[in-house]
Specification:
The protein is built from seven helices and five strands; from the N terminus they run H-E-H-E-H-E-H-E-H-E-H-H. It is of the alpha/beta class. The radius of gyration is 17 Å and the shape is globular. The model has no long low-confidence stretch (mean pLDDT about 95).
Length: about 200
């Protein structure tokens, strides 16, 4: 996966994108990401973030690659930009999904997936209620390592082995076995990233 993370966008965004575009022509990648808009810490480079996001969405369409979208304090704007770019070929996943049921519906309407991580296990998270209404066909599991480890590993560095806790919680929410969660989310990831096996 290759992409310019929105928090890395700076004054030299055009140069940053040129380096990535060159790499795209020389190496096989399975996705463009994490890309998007992050307005949580700083809005200084919002115009550059929007421009970089649009450029990378165009790359994804041209190369028939999915996108991994990072959005923080910018969900409505991201939705508008994805809809603007959508020509029927654009696919991807909203990384680290923590949105509402309405947000989930909008994502599914665009035929995108939601990345589900450790947040779903948190005591005060409303994500379990939201995910009751989301078909498994629209979910993939992820870690967001080194951040957001699932319970009971909070306070530690997140790692892939902790995904079991996330899968167990999702199985509880959906009323299915952990094996079914593993099978479905693996199948979804394979389909999304166009790979035959993991």
């Amino acid at each position: 996966m290759i992409g310019l993370h929105p928090t890395s966008v700076g004054e030299d965004v055009n140069e940053q994108l040129k380096v990535l575009e060159k790499a795209l022509t020389n190496t096989k990648f399975y996705a463009i990401g994490e890309i998007g808009i992050d307005l949580y810490w700083d809005k200084t480079f919002i115009d550059a973030q929007i421009s970089a996001f649009r450029t990378q969405l165009d790359w994804a369409k041209h190369l028939n690659l999915p996108v991994v979208i990072h959005t923080r304090e910018a969900f409505p704007l991201i939705l508008d930009l994805v809809k603007e770019a959508q020509d029927g070929s654009l696919t991807g996943v909203f990384h680290c999904f923590t949105g509402s049921e309405s947000d989930a519906e909008r994502i599914m309407d665009m035929n995108f997936m939601m990345g589900i991580g450790g947040v779903v296990t948190y005591k005060k998270s409303y994500l379990p209620e939201v995910l009751q209404h989301v078909p498994l066909d629209f979910m993939v599991l992820e870690t967001d390592s080194p951040y957001l480890p699932p319970v009971p590993h909070r306070g530690k560095r997140n790692e892939s082995s902790y995904m079991t806790e996330t899968a167990l919680k999702l199985a509880e929410i959906k009323g299915v076995s952990m094996e079914e969660i593993a099978m479905m989310t693996t199948r979804n990831a394979q389909k999304l990233f166009k790979i035959s096996s993991l």
